[in-house]
Specification:
heterodimer, A: 231 residues, alpha/beta, six-stranded mixed sheet, four-stranded antiparallel sheet, 8 helices, 10 strands, globular, B: 221 residues, mainly alpha, 83% helix
Chain lengths: 231, 221
């Protein structure tokens, strides 16, 4: 579960997040959409413990982000538009490195399992730099779920992918990445965001201006609501 | 924590063995410094041995600078530094892992360059204490250099920024290392250079402690 209360982030005098209140319950998939500069990546970076909030509180799986960041990092995975992978290492070496950093038990079996899940077991010993962008992003998913996180943060994971690769990535996320996990995903793609999430929210100007269950929305009404909100 | 430190070192060594990017540039640069200084001083200075300690430490530190520059730039590519920061470990483990990797790369280059230096400059005698001084000097340089490399990598002109930030800080370390190296080459016992040795050890202890304590703030946004 992710619980955010009154989250503010300022860079100098410029407030990027202006009091975010948000809750993602256990096993729920929340899609956060918003225009460029809305504060989506800043929010994800704070939740990922890569950036400190100016004020406000965040609880993740019962742990306070401010004081228990190591416990949170142990339970959280991140897929962003950057792969966080070493180009000169192979998938096996990358996953082995991250697995050791996370103290993953039965690492050998786990590496084999996640590589199979993302369909890269045949490329296990090839350097990552020889992979296409789509394959690298699939490997990034393997890296993010390697330590069996209960919370998965997805920050525009399909950035830079062509249509086909983006579709494959989202299928993969639905089948292996987000299953039995609490997920918060940011995206620009309204249709895809709505189809993947259980709930959607709109972040614009550093504030959550709209939130609804997927069951109460269709693509057309969500699109209208989005354009009205970001105007 | 030690396991995590060694995991980072192991990863850096594998990546370096694959590309040899850092090592080759460090080695070639150190070699060039020694060869060029050798030719330059041979023409103008009667006793080359007087400048040999300075040449040796210029070669070590300038080559080390190249390695330190690459150290965090490689982590910055594809967001790998963020991948490291996401790991559930105390961030000082990242500092010590990177520092130890830099220390190893610098030491390997020094181990190869030192015999070449000996052949070209032909100093009067070899003192085993010199190895200790090189280790202490390299440790201090890699220790503070790793911290500043992490700072410089967030700046726009990062490759220029590192020497500008680092060299003023390591001046005391370099002076002490050059003085002791000169003394040892002249046949003085280490005990006669206790003040310089204290400075070298003091620098290592203080800057390793400060780097350990501040690294978390440096890598934080």
């Amino acid at each position: 579960m992710i619980e955010i209360r009154g989250l503010v982030k300022s860079f100098g005098h410029k407030a990027v997040l202006k009091g975010i209140d948000l809750e993602v319950t256990d096993g729920q998939f929340l899609t956060l959409v918003g225009p460029n500069g809305a504060g989506k990546t800043t929010l994800i970076r704070i939740l990922a413990t890569l950036s400190k909030a100016t004020s406000g509180t965040v609880w993740m799986d019962g742990f306070d982000l401010a004081d228990e960041s190591i416990d949170i990092r142990r339970r959280m995975g991140l897929v962003s538009h950057q792969t966080l992978l070493y180009d000169d290492l192979t998938p096996d070496e990358n996953l082995r490195f991250y697995g050791r950093m996370y103290d993953v038990p039965d690492l050998e079996d786990r590496i084999e399992a996640v590589l199979q899940q993302v369909g890269l077991e045949g490329r296990r010993h090839d350097p990552v730099r020889t992979f296409s962008r789509g394959m690298q992003q699939r490997l990034a998913i393997a890296r993010a779920i390697l330590h069996r996180p209960s919370v998965l943060l997805l920050d525009e994971p399909d950035t830079g992918l062509d249509q086909h690769a983006a579709e494959m990535l989202h299928e993969l996320l639905v089948t292996v990445g987000t299953k039995d996990r609490t997920v918060l995903m940011t995206t620009h793609n309204l249709e895809r965001g709505l189809s993947m999430g259980d709930r959607v929210a709109i972040l614009t100007g550093g504030q959550i201006v709209y939130g609804a269950d997927k069951s109460t929305l269709d693509v057309k009404s969500f699109r209208e609501m989005y354009y009205r909100s970001v105007k | 924590m030690l396991r995590k430190i060694l995991t980072i070192v192991h990863k850096d060594i594998i990546a370096e063995l694959r590309t040899k990017e850092m090592f080759s540039s460090m080695f070639v640069f150190a070699l060039l410094v020694i060869v060029i200084f050798n030719f330059a001083f041979e023409l103008r200075i009667a006793n080359v041995k007087q400048v040999a300690p300075g040449v040796l430490w210029v070669a070590f530190t300038f080559a080390g600078m190249l390695g330190l520059n690459r150290s965090f730039i490689l982590e910055k590519d594809k967001g790998c530094l963020e991948g490291l920061l996401l790991a559930p470990v105390d961030r000082s483990a990242i500092y010590f892992g990177k520092m130890l990797g830099n220390l190893i790369f610098m030491s390997v280059v020094e181990a190869i360059v030192l015999p070449i230096f000996w052949v070209l400059f032909n100093p009067p005698l070899f003192s085993p204490a010199l190895i200790l001084i090189i280790v202490l000097g390299t440790l201090g340089f890699a220790g503070v250099g790793t911290l500043f490399s992490a700072i410089a990598v967030h700046t726009r002109a990062r490759e220029v920024m590192l020497p500008i930030l680092l060299f003023p800080i390591v001046v005391p370390l370099m002076i002490a290392a050059v003085k002791i190296t000169g003394g040892l080459l002249d046949g003085q016992p280490l005990s006669e250079m206790r003040n310089w040795l204290n400075l070298l050890v003091g620098f290592d202890v203080i800057f390793l402690t400060v780097s350990y304590m501040t690294f978390d703030y440096v890598v934080e946004e």
